[in-house]
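Exercise 7.
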Amino acid sequence: MIRDRASHRLPIILTFIFGLVLTIMPLPDGTEAFRPDWLAMLVIFWAMQLPRTWSVGTAWIIGIVLDVSQGTVLGQHALALCCVAFITVRFHLLMRVFPITQLTATVFAILATYQFLMFWINGVAGVNAPMIAYWGPIISGTLLWPFVMTILSGMRYRTRTGD
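Solution. The predicted structure, written as C-alpha cells, is:
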C-alpha cells in the first residue's frame, strides 16, 4: 500500500524537480524576462488535479526551495505559491470542467495574482525590477499553459493506469 502511494507520487515530485531546473537554468538576457513561472504552473495543475495531496503545504515547501535557490527574500515565493495553491484548490471543481480557453484565462488571472504578490513583496523589500519582468512570465505562462496541461494530463493518465 505504501509502495503504491510512493509510485504515484514519484512522477509528480519529478515534475516539480524538472520545473525547478527549468526555473534555475540560465537563459539569454533578451529572453530572461519571458521565462514562464514553471513552478506556479505545476502547482496550479497538480492542485487542480489532486487537491488533497498537492496543495498549500506542498506549495510552501516548493516556494522555500525556490527562495533559497534564487537568493530572494525568504518566504517570497512561498507566500505567492501558497496563494496560487489556495485559489486553485478553492476553485478546482469549477476549473476541471472549464474548456481549455476559459481555463487558460483563469490561469492568466492566477499567474497575474502570483506576479502581483511578487511585485508587492519586492516593493516592500526595496527591490526594483522593470515591468517586463512581471508581465513577461504571465504572458509566456499563459501561452504555454495549453501545452503544459496536455503533457501533464497525459502523464497523469499514464501513472494512474500504470502504463
